[in-house]
Design goal:
Layout lengths: L10 H16 L2 E3 L7 E7 L6 H11 L5 E5 L8 H6 L2 E4 L7 H11 L3 E5 L14 H9 L3 E7 L4 E8 L5 H12 L11
Parallel strand pairs: 1-7, 2-5, 2-6, 3-4, 3-5
Antiparallel strand pairs: 6-7
């Protein structure tokens, strides 16, 4: 796998220290502990603001996770595409017909350690239905889903617990969504 902000020798520990300082200064708490599972899909919700991205970077650095994240391809314009990929980004072109689920499952099969963060809402706007790609990736790759969250009301962000897909999409999505029912995003009106 390629080197990212989360795995760059010498620089990552320095950035981790800076992330811890910034989070303390802005009054946010990172929630989570060491993860020993080598492969999983991390979902992050509610995704309501452009500020979710820098907050995610700070929290992931503090919690010592090494991951990749999926984002719309318009976040990767020239000349910033290299930087966005170093920040862990994987560009997704939502306008083209392609099989992101299959490609991501292949990455899980081909690597001993692989973590990908997927915002299940697929947008910062309020949605009634989540995209199910993250679920299909986890189910087909036979890896768990780690439930990451932002709760602006409590000024905390991090992850809670693993969810193991059963193959029953409707029942599993209902259970996953129930965890997020009380979480408030940075723009509460979009939560």
């Amino acid at each position: 796998m390629r080197t990212t902000i989360f795995s760059t020798p010498i620089l990552t520990p320095l950035l981790r220290f800076i992330a811890i300082l910034i989070l303390k200064l802005i009054g946010w708490t990172s929630i989570g502990s060491k993860v020993s599972v080598p492969k999983y899909v991390l979902i992050g919700a509610p995704h309501t603001s452009n500020w979710d991205f820098p907050l995610m970077l700070l929290v992931v650095l503090e919690l010592r996770l090494q991951l990749f994240w999926m984002g719309k391809n318009t976040l990767f314009p020239f000349p910033f595409s290299g930087l966005m990929k170093w920040l862990g980004g994987i560009p997704i072109n939502r306008a083209k017909s392609h099989n992101v689920v299959y490609e991501t499952v292949s990455q899980f099969k081909n690597h001993d350690n692989f973590v990908v963060l997927v915002p299940p809402e697929g947008t910062r706007s309020k949605v009634s239905e989540w995209k199910t790609g993250f679920y299909h990736i986890a189910n087909n790759a036979e890896v768990p889903v780690l439930m990451g969250y932002v709760d602006a009301e409590k000024k905390e962000a991090g992850f809670a617990d693993f969810f193991y897909p059963t193959g029953d999409l409707d029942a599993d999505m209902k259970e996953i969504r129930s965890f997020y029912a009380e979480k408030k995003g940075l723009k509460a009106e979009n939560s």
